[in-house]
Specification:
The protein has 307 residues and is an alpha/beta fold. It contains 14 helices and eight strands. Strands 3-4-2-5-1-6-7-8 form an eight-stranded mixed sheet, sandwiched between helices. Helix 1 crosses helix 14, helix 6 crosses helix 7 and helix 7 crosses helix 10. The two termini are 22 Å apart. It binds adenosine-5'-triphosphate and magnesium ion (MG). The site of adenosine-5'-triphosphate has 19 residues, from helix 1, strand 7 and helix 12.
Length: 307
């Protein structure tokens, strides 16, 4: 069975693509068939992390029907078992996907014949990004220890929640229930207040909502970790999220800041291959182990509500 791991996080420049490329390389090193999918349609650069400069086909060919299947536009990298589906050739029109195009991509992702499918998402909380993230129950949120990044990660999680709750309840019900709470508040409690309000007025609907939210097993990674930061930040965030949201949150680990990441990108070589004995590369290996320890729960999501 394939595992889809979307990698998002709300903020730009925190290392989403770095994490996607390096986890992909480590998983491929184990002999798994891995594909990296660049869904940062307006800012695609994942191919550069993998050292490829010439991308003949990509998501645009799948959307304009010159390629029949999404798997036909996967390009092999110079790492065994690791391929990439790029969006670097997508035009400006394509970067603002129509809903139908988004659904076409999400449905095709679920059919890709790979062991691991890693989705590199763009920054921000636009609906395309949120829906790509929610296309699997196993999304990985990336953040750095900086307060701005932590803040954006919480914003991202709240946006995911509201997007999902709105999809389950429908627009009318969602408007009704969200009017019951102070939606503009920055507090994390707002999400659970909406759900509590549904549970109170319509217990059956509230239970259905909870059942769906509980299927999500979110994970998160703290990247660019430095010694000056409290080592327990990840555990603290895990605790807060598990308290305020009705899904499971697992902290997969820290990845240390290392100047040589910059160098690996310059030389267009995957970091874990060029600097395999660094603390950061070992951190990434631990994360792969933790991810695989979690795998019994990893399941492809069918996208019923889109059909
Ligand atoms: N662990 C790390 N140590 C040092 N530098 C890092 C680390 N991770 C990422 N970087 C640096 O951060 C930069 C941004 O990384 P990356 O492009 O992966 O971020 P992103 O979240 O994908 O950004 P965007 O939102 O623009 O797509 C990289 O160019 C790299 O130099
Ligand atoms: Mg990126």
């Amino acid at each position: 069975m394939s595992c889809i791991y979307p990698i998002g996080g709300g903020k730009g420049g925190i290392g989403k693509s770095f994490i996607a490329a390096n986890l992909g390389a480590l998983l491929a090193r184990q002999g798994n068939r891995v594909v990296l999918v660049d869904l940062d349609l307006g800012g695609a650069n994942l191919h550069t992390f993998t050292g490829i400069s010439n991308i003949p086909v990509g998501i645009e060919s799948f959307l304009n029907k010159s390629a029949r299947n999404l798997e036909d536009v996967a390009v092999p990298t110079n790492i065994d078992h690791l391929s990439i589906i790029s969006s670097v050739n997508c035009s400006m029109e394509i970067t603002n996907l129509y809903a139908a195009q988004k659904i076409k991509i999400i449905n095709a992702l679920a059919k890709l014949p790979y062991d691991y499918i890693l989705l590199d998402l763009g920054a921000g909380t636009n609906y395309n990004t949120l829906d790509f993230f929610l296309s699997s129950y196993e999304g990985i949120i990336t953040l750095t220890p900086e307060p701005t990044s932590v803040e954006n990660a919480f914003k991202f999680i709240k946006a995911l929640y509201f997007r999902k709750v709105k999809q389950i309840l429908g627009q009318n019900d969602f408007s009704f229930y969200s009017k019951q709470v102070e939606m503009n508040s920055n507090a994390l409690e707002v999400t659970s207040q909406v759900i509590d309000s549904v549970l109170e007025r319509d217990p059956a609907k509230g239970e259905r909502l909870l059942q769906e939210l509980r299927k999500f097993k979110f994970k998160f990674i703290i990247n660019q970790f430095r010694k000056t930061v409290g080592a327990k930040l990840g555990e603290k965030i895990e605790k807060v999220c598990n308290k305020h949201f009705y899904s499971e949150f697992t902290f997969l680990g820290n990845v240390c800041y290392d100047e040589r990441v910059h160098d690996s990108i310059y030389s267009r070589t995957i970091f874990v291959n060029k600097y395999s004995y660094t603390v950061s590369a070992i951190d990434l290996s631990h994360i792969v182990k933790n991810l695989q320890g979690n795998m019994e729960t990893a399941a492809l999501r069918t996208i019923g509500h889109y059909e």
